[in-house]
Amino acid sequence: MRILVTGSNGFIGRNLVWNLREIRDGKNQTRPSLNITEINGVSSETPVEKWEEYCSNCDFVFHLAGVNRPKNTSDFMKVNCGAAQFLIDTLKKVGNTCPVMFASSTQATLAGRFAGSEYGRSKLSGEELFFKYERESGSKAYVYRFPNVFGKWCKPNYNSAVATFCNAVANDLEYTVNDRNTELELLYIDDLIEEMFDALEGHEHRCEFDGLNVIPDENGRFCYVPTTHKASLGEIVDLLKGFKAMPETLVMPDIPNCSFAKKLYSTYLTYLPADKMSYPFRSNVDNRGSFTELIRTHSGGQISINVAKPGIVRGEHWHNSKWEIFIVVSGHGLIRQRRIGIDPETNEGYPVTEFEVTGEQPRAVQMLPGFTHSILNLSKTEDLVTVMWANEPFDPNHPDTYYEPVSPELKKPQNPEKGNI
Questions:
Q1: What's the CA gap between 376 and 362, in Å, rounded?
Q2: Which of 54, 119, 224, 268 is catalytic?
C-alpha cells in the first residue's frame, strides 16, 4: 500500500507519517493487515509534477493540508478550499479513484460558538467538495470533523490552548486563563492516529452530526474518532501545575490508563526544557548507608532505594497495615522476617523466615503486615542496593512503624531507626 499525506510537515501530518513508517518498517506489528510499502508527503512547496506522480501511484490519501491562522481571513477559503480542489483535480487528472481522508473540524458545524467561524466555513466547503467528488468518481471519502487536537509536537501559541498552557507551565512563562469554566472537547493525537489506521483497514467509525454532537451511525456520511475527552481550562491548568510540582513533591498525580490526565502528562513532558528533564533526589545518609525516596502516589504507594553498607542490618521493625516489597538489585543480602507475638500452640515465638538474595538473580520478597523484618548486607566489601515499594507513602504523623528485633534475643539499639527502613 502506497500512502500520500498532504500537509505532512504539520502537527498531525508529522505524527501520522512517523507512525506509518513504524508500520512500514515492521517496528509496529499491531496492524498485521497493513502492508505499507511507500509513504510520500507533499506541501504547497511541492512541484506540480511530484503531486501528479504521487497521486497517480498512491492507494490512499490523507489530506491534512490547510491553514488555521492566516494573515487574512479571506485566505481561509482561498487556501483550504483551494488545496482540497487542487488535490481532487490532480486525482481526476491522473485517473486515480483511491480512498481519500479529509481532515475537517468541528467548527464546520457552524454551531454554538462556531456560528461565525470563517475557518469553519472553509472546512465545510471542503467537505462538500469531497462528498461531491465521492458521488461523481466512486472514490470513497472519509470526512473527519476533529475537535481540539493535542499531543507531542503541537505548536504553542498557535491554535491549541493545551499546547500553549503546556509550554508556558513547563518553561515558567506567563499565561492567562480567561475563563476557567470554558470546556473543550479534546482529541489526543495517538487516538487520532489509531483511527487513521482503522480507516486504512476499512474499519472507520461512521457518524452523523446533531450540531456539535456526534451521532454514531454505521451508514453516516462523516467519520469520527470514538475516544475524546472534555475538560475545562481550569482543570487543564490545575493538572499541569501538579505535573510541574512532581519533581519537588515526588507525588505522581493519578493518571489512570486511557485517562485525559495520562495523555496530558505525556504531552506536558514534551515541552520541558533540557534543564528540567533531570532533577535531583534528597537522600537520608548516615554511616549505615542511605535511603532515597523516588516516587509517591496517591493510590499506589511509594518507591524508594535503600543502600546498606557492608555488614549493616536495616529494619528490625514491623507494621500494622503497611506492607512492602524488597528487590535487591546489587549486592548480596539476607532478608529475615518473623510474625510478632507468641504462638499459642507452642507458647514460643514464631519461627524466622529467611531469604538469601542477590542482585544477579533479583526476586521480590514481600514484607507482611504484623511481621517484623530486616535486611542484612552479607558482603564485606560491597554495598547492598535494594528497591523498596511500600503500599502507602511514609507519614510521620502516622508512621505505623515499631521497633522489634527479628531475633528476640537481640537488644534494642541506642538509636533505633525511625520511619522508613
A1: 16
A2: 119
